[in-house]
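[SOLVED] Predicted holo structure with zinc ion

Edit: marking solved, answer below. Original request kept for reference. I posted the sequence and ligand SMILES and asked for the 3D complex as structure tokens.
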Amino acid sequence: MAGIESIANNANINNEFERVYPSQPIPTEQALWFPFQGQKLLVKTQDQGITLLQGDQELLANIKHEELLYIGRYKGQPCIASALDPEEPLPGDWKAFGLRELYNLMPGFEYNIATYASQLINWHKTSRYCPVCGSPMVSVEGGWGRSCVRGDYTGYPAVIPAIIVLIHDGKRMLMAHKAGWGKRYGLIAGFVEPGETLEECVHREVKEEAGIEIEDLQYMNSQPWPFPSQLMIGFMARYKSGVVQPQDNELDDVRWFSSDTLPELPPPSSLAYILISSWLKQYGNQQ
Ligand SMILES: [Zn+2]
């Protein structure tokens, strides 16, 4: 099991992205741009697919940016997030895509930076005023936090933890189905409650959604999931006891699958798919 864990975790670290925090000045050199118009990222579409916009400030001086954030460096190149006016006219070869559409169309690490950019832009948009007294909020030095000018509140961009777990009994794995998913099955997942450890959350969600007990819980991998600000935390666990049965109204089916009877799976590069692949590598030939 240690082998799988280390493979999963090493593949999951982006050493080439270095974060930068306020109040570093916006670089004027050639940069990677993450401009958002509403919730959509503007990219270039070319014959070979989708590429991030690149250019210096001069290139983009003719576009009106409502917000500019210097968020980091990728492979040494500055990354700049920006928010554009919804009415701003754009060059003909720029195209707007929702982040869900871009998932699987962009390299994973670039996609993760895009989701980071999107969350920071949204955070700035929604944290202009103090939720306690309504006074303006200003940036906290050295981080993305924002503080009320009267000093009664400081907020930070939210990261909402959610667990996802692959449960197996050595020969089969447990998959769940929600109304509206068509033929596709996924894994048991759910949000962490306040005051709960990740381990408690996994046990609770499994009990609530499938009605069973698990053991040998093991952390595998994680993935930011920006809809809107989740961090998916992936586990593997072994079935212990109980009868599998959907327990809440969210799921309409929960059942065991062996590797030769798999249903339609979640999309590649989703954390669910990565967990399923890890399990198949280890247990897929033990029918
Ligand atoms: Zn205040």
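OP edit: The domain at 15-127 is CATH 3.90.79.10 (Nucleoside Triphosphate Pyrophosphohydrolase). Thanks to everyone who chimed in.
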